[in-house]
Design brief:
homodimer; alpha/beta; Alkaline Phosphatase, subunit A; Alpha-Beta Plaits; 2 domains; 8-stranded mixed beta sheet; 5-stranded antiparallel beta sheet; 14 helices; globular
Chain lengths: 400, 400
């Protein structure tokens, strides 16, 4: 739903909405047993929510499109992922929960190997380990360039984040990663008028980085790509008049939530940790995004049984969550990760919404088949927030 | 799905996609027996595909809109039929598989009858037979006009195609068919600046045609309408990175396929012919559009039993088709042609897609009721190509 309409009908309230995101939720049939992970797991509490609530299947970007974690979550939060794009450098910052400011330009960095002639011989520096990456980032962190503050943060293996902070910086910059070996990394060029100054800053950084790294072969040079500023997203407070909080252990999901103005609450990795955070902050917020990662990890590992077991773990936590008496609870995922496919996939994701105001529908259990038969059918994930708002009494009538 | 998104996520592959179009597929219940043609036909192989695959109901232009063959097929190929329009003259060219070039302007022609005063007395010249039409076209074919090459091709009965080929021709022309009798056909006028020259050429052609036809009453004059250039459609190679081939006996469908850059393979009218062509060219293409006409013809003839029988004929050919091991097979239609309605209709059309990566759904048979209960619900035909691309592993993730 477009934000113009939402802003026209949104009203304040004192109701509570919980969005429980089971990462990589949807699955495919077991090759011999013929049932999906959700059909296999024994989930009486989720099934009860499905029976009492309304169900459907959601797609996040489009039919047949596999969403990355960024677009997948933005859609769940109500933000059209086609309209609100997160550049690669900005996503890298989000992924390590680096607070990219409005004055910042970020890039994805690789440590790489160059020969004596400066030609790239390995774009990933032999995939150095993350500890080495952290040490090398520490060597680069105090590089000074005129007109901007420099941040260099390790990500994983050979990957790092470069952020520049200063007045009037531009992200209209060419990349220094030629995406092939045997050639030297090119200088950064301005791709738009007004970006020349930033290009100069980046080139000055790269020149100093090269000097400092020359004895650190295989990681004796850097490559930079995906220059991006912080995406401009209206906040959930602005659009939905919600005080929104995120309970997520992994930095990527905290970072995504913060991009839409959520408060990231501290939380440990377990469901018990999430529930504790929820209880502790229940009075302070109207909307809680609770992220659960283990379903996706099991799917990516191709571990059908573990994915089903993780669903049962979630199910066991539902009564305690319901004990908080949320007015609306939604359970879904940011994409499917079928264990047989071992990766994010395009398959639509089961969705349920339970409140006291639910129209009856045919879904009896929380799985792919039942949710397909639910009253919401196959629909865009961006519509779940409007549904939640309505069921929470936070939308008024449209027109007289 | 918009092509901008498709181009962003498309990746090459070596998978094979088959789209089997059963023209006029969908139907309505038999007036006494109460079951549709698809429900009546015994189609165990199609039913198995429906059971193993994902199903839904598609609409090609909009709910309640009966698509012509052009828009119906364009939608199946992924092209928004509202955005990509085929002018009437261009469709007439497509319908006889006349290769309309980028320098051409085409019009639909009617032979008609005029009285001594030049007034139209029969806009269709008593519906002369097609052979007569062909002889008359031969009489007009060598008319010469300064600045353009002239093509006159018979279509059917009183209908023919006029195409002019030359530099700087325009299709912004008024029509010479007043759509009523008792008046003389008006001269062609330029409807935009720069079209005056082409208007003059067309009027010169009409004047000569009248002279040559004066002794051929009832076909003693021509009417021209629907001036159109070849529509500019991006090719399937460009949009989907697919080498696409069409296996279709009727020129209209070959012509439509060529408009989106498919290679039209030679094929006879029978399903066996189509399968032979498919086998022969299997290694050379990634995507095969196979057109089957007999279902539509039976529907237009109001022959319920024949339509059901034709579905059984298709069903019998499915095992051989599957023997080629396509990665994705889709079966659907370009519109419904219910036998009781005896014409193209607006009713949504059953759709199935089978690949090894299908989410389970409730469709057990290939008919209207089961496809309605399928996981795809009621959706736009333009989305079937993105679904096929995903299931064929030809789309990468959107966003990180």
């Amino acid at each position: 739903m477009d934000f113009e309409l939402i802003r026209e009908i949104v009203i304040p309230g004192d109701t509570k909405i919980v969005l429980l995101v089971l990462d990589g939720l949807g699955g495919l049939p077991h090759p011999t047993k013929g049932r999906t992970e959700m059909q296999t797991a024994n989930t009486p509490n989720l099934d009860r929510l499905a029976r009492e609530g309304i169900c459907g299947m959601i797609y996040h970007v489009g039919l047949g499109v596999t969403p990355g974690s960024g677009p997948g979550h933005l859609a769940l939060f109500g933000y059209d992922p086609r309209r609100y794009r997160i550049g690669r450098g900005a996503l890298e910052a989000v992924g390590i929960d680096f607070d990219l400011g409005p004055q910042d330009v970020a890039a994805r960095g690789n440590f790489c190997t160059v020969d004596e002639g400066g030609r790239i011989v390995d774009r990933r520096a032999g995939r150095i380990d993350t500890d080495t990456c952290a040490r090398l980032c520490a060597e680069l962190r105090d590089i000074e360039v005129a007109g901007a503050q420099v941040f260099v943060e390790p990500v994983r293996e050979h990957r790092f984040l470069l952020a520049l902070r200063g007045d009037g910086l531009s992200d209209a910059l060419s990349e220094t990663d030629p995406q092939r070996e045997g050639v030297p990394p090119p200088q950064v060029r301005a791709l738009a008028a007004g970006a020349e100054g930033t290009a100069g800053l980046v080139n000055a950084f790269v020149a100093q980085a090269r000097e400092r790294l020359c004895d650190h072969r295989p990681a004796n040079m850097v490559l930079l790509r995906g220059f991006a500023r912080r995406p401009e997203l209206p906040s959930m407070a602005d659009v939905f008049q919600l005080r929104a909080a995120a309970i997520a252990f992994y930095p990527m999901y905290r970072g995504l939530a913060k991009l839409v103005g959520m408060t990231a609450l501290p939380s440990g990795p377990s469901l018990a940790d999430s529930l504790a955070a929820l209880r502790e902050h229940w009075g302070q917020f109207d909307f809680f995004f609770v992220h659960y990662k283990a379903t996706d990890s099991a799917g990516e590992d191709g571990d059908f049984e573990r994915k089903a077991a993780k669903l049962e773990e979630v199910d066991a936590a539902i009564p305690e969550l319901l004990g908080l008496q949320p007015d609306v609870i939604m359970v879904s995922g940011d994409h499917s990760t079928p264990s047989t496919y071992r990766a994010h996939s395009w398959h639509p994701v089961p969705f349920l919404l339970r409140s006291r105001w639910c129209q009856p529908d045919r879904a009896e259990r929380f799985n792919e088949l039942d949710c397909q038969a639910g009253s919401l059918g196959l629909f865009a994930a961006t519509e779940i927030m409007p549904l939640a708002m309505a069921h929470a009494g936070r939308f008024t009538k449209y027109g007289a």
